[in-house]
Design brief:
This protein is of the alpha/beta class and 483 residues long. Helix content is 49%, strand content 7%. The chain is globular and about 65 Å long.
Length: 483
Amino acid sequence: MAGLPPSRDGLHPDRALPSGTAERAIAREILGHTVDLPILSMHGHVPIELLEADEPFGDPASLLVVPDHYLVRMLVSQGVAPEAVGLPRRDGTAAVADPREVWRTFAARWHLFRGTPTRFWMEHVLAETLDVEWRLSADNADQVFDDISARLAEADFSPLALLDRWRIDVLATTDAADADLAAHHRLARRGYGDRIVPTFRPDAVLRLDRSDWRESLASLAQRSAREIGSYDGFVAALEARRRAFVEAGARATDHGHTSADTTPLDATEAERIFSAALRGEVTSRQADAFASHMLFEMARMSTQDGLVMQLHPGVLRDHDPRVEATWGADVGYDIPVVTEFTRSLRPLLNAFGHHPGFTLVLFTVDETTFSRELAPLAGVYPAVRLGAPWWFLDSPDGMRRFREAAVDTAGFYNTAGFVDDTRAFLSIPARHDLARRMDAGHLARLVAEHRLDLDEAIETAVALAHDLPRAVYPQLPRPGAPT
């Protein structure tokens, strides 16, 4: 079946809502109070260069297929070669695949995404954002490619125009510790300083045994205008960069360590390990200990500068080293591992868990920890908030399981609202729409079971969609910010 009715009729208004008649009616009413709320996208990977340039998007393949690792990994799992998906090589060699051929490859395999959140998001993007009137298939791939290309060329279809169309109040990018932030400052001078904000991501310099650590350290030294020949100099450089991020409008830090361990080192041991790294003699065990120590230090710094600390451990990055060597990171080969939080976070929370100026937002891809560890931690430590289910869990059923596992112990108000974590710019509204629908369904069940009144459910839905992320990620004073 190649054709469908026009897309706005094709997307069912009750998609992802409960199937039962009574609960569905309640969910519709709840959703009506959140569906048009502004979006706060507080964690994502949209390139700041894309936003600053504010130029027409490229072709449909480079916009929708190549940067979406959810989509790429599914195609690769079915035997599609990375070059056929248009991935550029790590050495900078441009992709050789013709964009139209990439799109044909994707369209012919549309059936692979049945039942996945990628299907839900992409249907939303195609129908609501791009006005595509067809169900994607091999038969209509060229027609859809041309329709999308025409839409992308329209004057009102630019990145900054879409911020207004989608009612995005805040869009946070993710930026390395050595990022120059110049694009953020230029956008600030154009009036976007409180709307497009950076996020401090220091992973590249906190892991001493990374192959690119020396290059990252040298760049950090240059950017911070500090000589880094000692551990104390390293800490001072990180503190300086955090101040620069705050001045650029940052609200949070972001940490993607394998482990959640936060055991601190004494200053002598930290200096010894750092010096070994400078000599090229650091061991994996030492690097693990130093990374754990630096998570503790990041929390300490957050109590001083106010940046919210986001932690999402438990992923083994670049599972296939040959793929990473050829195609680079973030192409779908990051795989979840078992994660322990209770003992790992104890040093950090014993030191800062009750600090009035500290907020720690915890994410996981190990959903067994929701009820056993994360909800109990958030349910007692004032500093802790639970992040949304994401990555492999930001699906309808994953979101449902999260609410069922976490709310009993942590409640709704010890969470941080929805965080979309997307590289695919056009999918931001789709992801928030799905989260609001799933929350409407969960709350509708509580109303139907007479566990909540309808007005309470509506108030909670608004909090989850808008009020909580605004409160958890507050705007910070920006002393010395460029004008």
